[in-house]
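Curious: why these numbers?
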Amino acid sequence: MRTPFDILSDYEQRSLAHVVQLPARELGADTWRGVGYRVGQRRLVSAFNEVVEILPMPPVTPVPGAQPWLLGIGNLRGNLFPVVDLKLFLEGERTVLHEGQRVLVMRQHGGDVALAIDELYGQRGFDQEQAVDPAQLAQGRYAHFIDRAFHGEDADWGVFSLSRLARTPEFRQAAA
C-alpha cells in the first residue's frame, strides 16, 4: 500500500520528466545589465546601481509654486520624496497616469526621487555586439543623458544616466 507521500513523490518524478528546459543564456563578463522602461516613444535602460527601487505610483500631494514636471511629494514608509514626471521634464509632454503606474526611485544628494515612467519592462541585458550608435535616441534633452545604446528585442535601447540627471542644475531646482 502506497502512502500519500509516495504518491506525491511519484507525481513529482513524472512531472519533472516532462519539463521542457529553456536554453540557457550565457551572460558574459562584458554583458551590460539594467532596468528597462519607456518614456514617450523611447525605450531606455538605467544601470541597476542607479535604481534604488521600483514602486507603484504613490499618492502625491501637489507643491504650490513648483515646476510643472514636479508632480508633488510622495510618502514611502514615512520618508517624503519628490515625484517627477520624467516625460514632462525631458519632452515637455505630460505622462498619462494610469492604473498600475510605476515609478523608478533614484538616489540623489539630499534624498530619493521618484520618476514617473510610461511603462516598465524589467531587467534587460545586452552584449557588446548589440551596441549601436546612440545618436537616434540621444536627441533633444535626451542628448545630455544618453551616450550609449544597444539593439535588442527589435528595438533600440538608450542607456539613460540617472546619476547625470540627478546632477543637472535644472532638475535640482524644482521651484518655478
About this structure: The mean pLDDT is 88. Residues 103 and 116 are 5 Å apart (CA to CA). The longest strand covers residues 32-39. Residues 4-17 form the longest helix (14 residues).
